[in-house]
Amino acid sequence: MKTSKRKSTHFQVINNGIVLDFIKEPEGGYTVTVPSLPGCVSYGKTFEEAIEMIKDATEGYLKVAKEEGLLWNTTCNYQTSPTNAR
Q1: 14 to 25, 77, 78: CA distances (angstroms)
Q2: Hey, where are the domains in the chain?
Q3: Sheet harboring 41-44: ordered strands across?
């Protein structure tokens, strides 16, 4: 059985310290997760699209969390600094 080795690239959202976990998929595109927000996952066909998609997913996640009384600050400012993006 062939085992797939995935290389994960991490970068930090500077304003609120959220780490995004990128996985370049063998069939193309990028899956993105936010380890500090369980279940917050997105996908983009390109690295740039993946960033935009995870922004939307994160903002939606935080909006719902705020509505449920789980968060007090939902400001998200994205400044990325990829360490090994491609």
Answers
A1: 25, 8, 7
A2: 8-67
A3: 8-13, 18-24, 30-33, 41-44
Single pTM value for the model: 0.65
pLDDT digits (tens, 9 = 90+) for 6-37: 555 545 443 467 788 888 888 889 899 988 88
Contact 9, 19 (CB under 8 A): no
- What is the predicted pLDDT for the residue at 63? 92
Q: Buried b vs exposed e over 20-51: b needs ≥16 C-beta within 10 Å?
A: bebbbeeeebbbbbbeeeeebebebeebeebb
Alpha helices in the chain (DSSP H): 47-67
